[in-house]
Amino acid sequence: MSNQYSLEVHGAGREIGRSCFVLNAENERILMDYGVKFQPGMPSEYPTLVEGKIDANILSHAHMDHSGFWPELYVKQNAPSYMTSPTQDLSKMLWMDALKIADQDGKEHAFSPNEVLRAEKSVHAMQYNRPLDITPNARLEFVDAGHIAGAAMVKLNVKEKTFVYSGDFMLPPTRLHNGADIKSLGKVDYLLMESTYGNRMHPDREKVEKDFMQKINDTIDNGGHAVVAAFAVGRTQEILDVMFDHGVNAPVFLDGMSRKATEIYHQYPQFNSKPKTVRRMLEQLNMVRHPGHRKAALKEPSVIVTTAGMIEGGPVMHYLNHLHADERSSLLMTGFQVPGTKGRKLLETGKIELEVGEVAPKMSIQRFDFSAHSGRDSLLKTIKVLSPEQLILIHGDKQISTDFNDELKAQGYNVSNPRNGRHRSAVDVMDYWGNSFPSCPSVQPLESGSLYSQIFFIHYGFKVG
Asked: What range(s) does the Metallo-beta-lactamase domain occupy (predicted)?
C-alpha cells in the first residue's frame, strides 16, 4: 500500500446527517455519499467543501441524509457515479419532487431539473456482488446492506488493502430484505461503520408487529380510522407487508409519495425478498391520487398509510385535521421522531399545531420501533465477524458514538470516531492520527424552509415550510 492513504470526513462525523467521505489512495480520490442535514428551526447543513479532483463518486443509498446534495456535487465534480438501479430511481424521484415543491413554494433552486438529468447520465448502475474496476487502482463491489431497496455496503479494494464503508445497514433480516450480507465482504482492513444505535438494541420485531396489528384491529373494531405515518422509502413497504401478512378487516389506503416509491420497489424484484408481495400491494391497495379518494378513505373504518413519517407536513396533516377529535381513531408512528419535529412534540407534549390552532388530539397516539438500522448487538456482531485492522465510527450522535468508541477501545479495538474536518492519515496501516487539515468552509446555509431543508425531509416523505 502506498504511504499516501487517508480518509476525509466531510459530514456525519460525530453526528447524523450530511454523510460525505473521501478516500485518498494511490493518488486517486473516491467520494462516498453527499447528503444533507436538517434540524427543525435551524439552517440546513451540507458537507464541508470537497476540494480537488474526484475520480469516482459512490452513492450508498437513496435516503437524503446520504444523497440529498448529490446533484450539486455533479455540478462541481463531473466524475462517474456508481450506485444500484433502485438507488438511482429512488434518488431521482426525491430530487425531482423537491424541485417541484420549491416551485410551488416560490423557493430558490440550488440545482435545476436539467442538472438532475445530466447527473443521472453519469451513473453506472451496479448489481450486488459484481466487482468493477472504477479507477486504475480501485475495484468497487456493492454488497446488500439490508436497509432499503438498493442500499449497499461499499467494498473498495485498493492494491492489497480492503476498505469497507457500511452506509446504513441492517444486519438481521426484515420483512422485505434478507439482512446485510457481511459474510460476502471477506477480509476487511479498514471499516467505516455507522454507529447510530451504538447505545441500545431494538425491541423484538415480532412483538412490535403484534402490538402494531393489535392497535390497528382495535381501532377498526371501534369504528375508527388507523392513520399510519410512515417514511415513503422503505418503511411504508415494510409496514404494508406486516398488514398483508396478518390481514386487516378494512380497506387499506396508500397516500403520498409512498405510491411512487412502492412502484419502484416493484420494478426491481431482485432487490427485495418478496417481489410477489410488493406486486400484490400495488394490485390490492386503494391508491389515493386526488382529493376525492381522501374523502372515500374517511367514509368508513379504514387504515390509511401516508407520509410524512415525522408529522411535519404532507397528506398526514389532512387526516389529522379531520380526525384529531375522534376518540375512536388512532395515529400510529412507525419511525424515529427527530427533536423539534411536530411528531416529536406530539409524543412529548400531547399537542400539535393544526388548521384550528394548537390542539391536544383525542385520537390515540402511539409510536412503534420499525428501525432499519442495526442495533447495538448487530453492530458488535459485525465488528466481531469482520475483525478489521482499523475501525472508524461515523453516522452517530456525538455522545453515543464517543461512548461506543471508548467502550470498543477499552476492549482492545483499534477504533476512532473522527470529527468533521479531520482526516485519518496513515503510513501503510493507518495507525495514528494525522494533524487537522485546513478547515474546509461549509456551504453557505439557506434558511429553514429552503429547498434543502425540504429535500432532507423528502427522505421522510413530506415537505417543510
From this structure: 17-225
